[in-house]
Amino acid sequence: FVGKSALYHAKDMVNNEMLKKNIFSFLLVGIIFLLDRVSKYIIINLSDPSGELNISINTFLNFNLVWNDGIAFGLFSFEQNFYYNLITLIIIIVTLIIIWLAYRTNGLEKISYLMIIGGSLGNIFDRLYYSSVLDFIDISINNFHWFIFNVADIFITLGVILLIVLEFFKKKMP
């Protein structure tokens, strides 16, 4: 009996140490996920009963509700469930790999992976719950119109840009 108690105590200590060591990581991912969820919740509630939403903030920024069943910025949208499910599975696997990479790194590199994870989890939630990702941020300048995206996409993009910048600095340093 004493041996089992000591074993459970040791496991609790390891789990507590792991939690303390990674609390920043969990918080950052959670905050990004929550920002994405709250923004999408607000947009859904602002949309009319038919699911339409077109809010013009200014000539540069609009909120237009779009349901995206492809990947980044609506690329590879498919009508067939098989391809949608396959892409969703691939996204989940890639996210798991990025979680592993984040666990093995530190500093700005870790933060960049955590931003990607937080955004990815937000979009994965949409894929599993709605069978589509809710995009709504619409940016245009004169005749140039960018893809419609969401808060999760912003953090994924920032994380990837940070990784690229860090890689350039790694190459320059001996």
Mean pLDDT: 85
Largest sheet: 4 strands, antiparallel
Q: Return the structural class.
A: alpha+beta
SSE arrangement, N to C: HEEHHEEH
Low-confidence stretches: none
Q: Any idea what the shape is?
A: globular
**How much strand?**
5-15%
CA gyration radius, whole angstroms: 20 Å
Kindly state the percentage of residues in helix. Answer: 55-70%
- State the strand order across the main sheet: 1-2-3-4
Distance between the termini: 56 Å
Defining traits:
single chain, 4 helices, alpha+beta, about 170 residues, 4 strands, 4-stranded antiparallel sheet
Notes on the structure:
The protein has helices at residues 2-46, 81-104, 107-130, 151-172; strands spanning 54-56, 61-68, 133-141, 144-145. It is α+β, with helices and mostly antiparallel strands. It has a four-stranded antiparallel sheet with strand order 1-2-3-4. A hairpin with a 2-residue loop joins strand 3 and strand 4. Helix 1 packs across helix 3, helix 2 (81-104) packs antiparallel against helix 3 and helix 3 (107-130) packs antiparallel against helix 4 (151-172). The longest helix is centred in the N-terminal third of the chain and has 45 residues, at 2-46. The chain is globular. The N and C termini lie far apart (56 Å).
Summed up:
With 174 residues, the protein is α+β, with helices and mostly antiparallel strands. 66% of the residues lie in helices and 13% in strands.
Topology:
Blueprint: H1 2-46, E1 54-56, E2 61-68, H2 81-104, H3 107-130, E3 133-141, E4 144-145, H4 151-172
Antiparallel strand pairs: 1-2, 2-3, 3-4
Helix pairs in contact: 1-3, 2-3, 3-4
